[in-house]
Amino acid sequence: MEMVQGIDLSGNQLSSFIPSAIASCSALEYLDLSHNIFEGPITDSVSKLRNLQELDISNNKLSGTIPESLQNLTVLTILNVSFNLLKGEIPKAGPFTKLTASSFRGNPELCGQWIFSLPACPSAGSSGRLWNFHKLFKYITFVISFLVVYCLYVSLLYRYFFGKRNVEQPSIEFPHPRISYKELSTATNGFAKGNLLGVGGVGSVYKGVLDNGTLIAVKALNLEDEAAHKSFNIECQVLGKTRHRNIIKLITSCSNLDFKGLVFEFMSNGSLERHLHCDAGKCNIGGVCKMDLQTSTDSHGRCPWLGISPS
Question: Which of the residues 62, 118, 119, 144 could staple to 84 if both were Cys, CB 3.0 to 4.6 A apart?
Answer without folding.
Answer: 62
